[in-house]
Write a structure and sequence with these properties.
- The chain is mostly helical and 128 residues long.
- It is built from five helices and no strands.
- The longest helix is centred in the N-terminal third of the chain and has 18 residues.
- It is elongated and about 55 Å long.
């Protein structure tokens, strides 16, 4: 972990990570250790959210941001749309959504609605 404080190592690591989370890209040739380590970490994160690449690339790819959106939807009690996701992905989504539901507070929804209303922002209740 101390190596991440080295700016060159960190840059190579994150370059590798960004390629690893993209299922359409692969590690074509070995670069330096930082890049390969980052690639493996990115690929592991991708496959933990979307399933193994060898099983196919899903129609819709889940990112950390999308999971956070499902968590927030659960927190506010919004309905969610899961069309286009695989069974593996829906299992991951349901864990995040359920975590949000457990934190659901009806007052948060009314406070959010009031805030959006005072700023003339309309809420689309259909998620995704």
């Amino acid at each position: 972990m101390r190596k991440l404080f080295n700016s060159t190592y960190r840059k190579d690591y994150f370059d590798g990570y960004s390629i690893g989370v993209n299922p359409h890209l692969s590690l074509e040739r070995k670069k330096n250790k930082a890049f390969v380590t980052g690639f493996k970490s990115g690929r592991l994160d991708y496959e933990n959210r979307n399933g193994l690449i060898c099983c196919g690339i899903p129609q819709r790819i889940i990112t950390e941001k999308i999971l956070e959106d499902f968590l927030i939807a659960g927190m506010f009690g919004f309905d969610i749309e899961t069309d286009g996701y695989t069974a593996f992905q829906i299992n991951i989504i349901s864990h995040w959504y359920q975590s949000g539901v457990e934190k659901y507070d009806p007052d948060q929804y009314s406070n959010l609605a009031a805030l959006l209303n005072t700023n003339n922002i309309e809420m689309n209740l259909a998620h995704q």
